[in-house]
Amino acid sequence: DIVMTQSPLSLPVTPGEPASISCRSSQSLLHSNGNNYLDWYLQKPGQSPQLLIYLGSNRASGVPDRFSGSGSGTDFTLEISRVEAEDVGLYYCMQNKQTPLTFGGGTEVEIK
Amino acid sequence: QVQLVESGGGVVQPGRSLRLSCAASGFIFNGYGFHWVRQAPGKGLEWVALIWSDGTVTYYADSVKGRFTISRDNSKNTLYLQMSSLRAEDTAVYYCARGYSGYAFTIDSWGQGTLVTVSS
Known about the structure:
Structural class of chain B: mainly beta
Largest sheet of chain B: 7 strands, mixed
Shape of chain A: globular
Strand content of chain B: over 45%
Radius of gyration of chain B: 13 Å
Number of helices of chain B: 0
Low-confidence stretches of chain A: none
Mean pLDDT of chain A: 97
Oligomer: heterodimer
Radius of gyration of chain A: 13 Å
Helix content of chain A: under 10%
Distance between the termini of chain A: 36 Å
Number of strands of chain B: 11
Distance between the termini of chain B: 39 Å
Number of strands of chain A: 11
Largest sheet of chain A: 7 strands, mixed
């Protein structure tokens, strides 16, 4: 199975400041077709998860452009250009290159 | 408006069975693959199973393989998860989730979840 490792576990942020979350996979998520099979999800407090980024760098419908995904192979990053109060919650990366699909342990973003 | 509504959760004794359902609306059900994803209390997300849009292909996490069965009834716009030989470690909120139309392994919509508690 592909192991996903996120860092940091917790990320205190100041509104208006940038934030960055790292996700590493135990195997390359880069396919020969050029796609990186890595998604990012946000679970706001008391809510179900929601898709933010798919295939490494594609924003899902309705996701603000302050969210961006980058990286390739085994190293990926989710960046928030200017954090807003509504961005608090648990962020998860998930590899979907092969089954079983596996999630990172999560990064909790909180407002300072 | 995509709607996924899970039901069937509850308290069940170890070793017993339970079937979860997920009623879908607001889109063409038989055009999408579906997942079950679970979250133990205070823990992270764990993928459980995936079924193809036509129901012909399924995938499972090793932790549930042989005990859980994912299925669907496209005439009823409903997804199921039959769980048997339940264990304490299966205690979790179970989410029904839709696969993205462009790549079914990406999850683009989630239900609100249903809690399954396995306890004597």
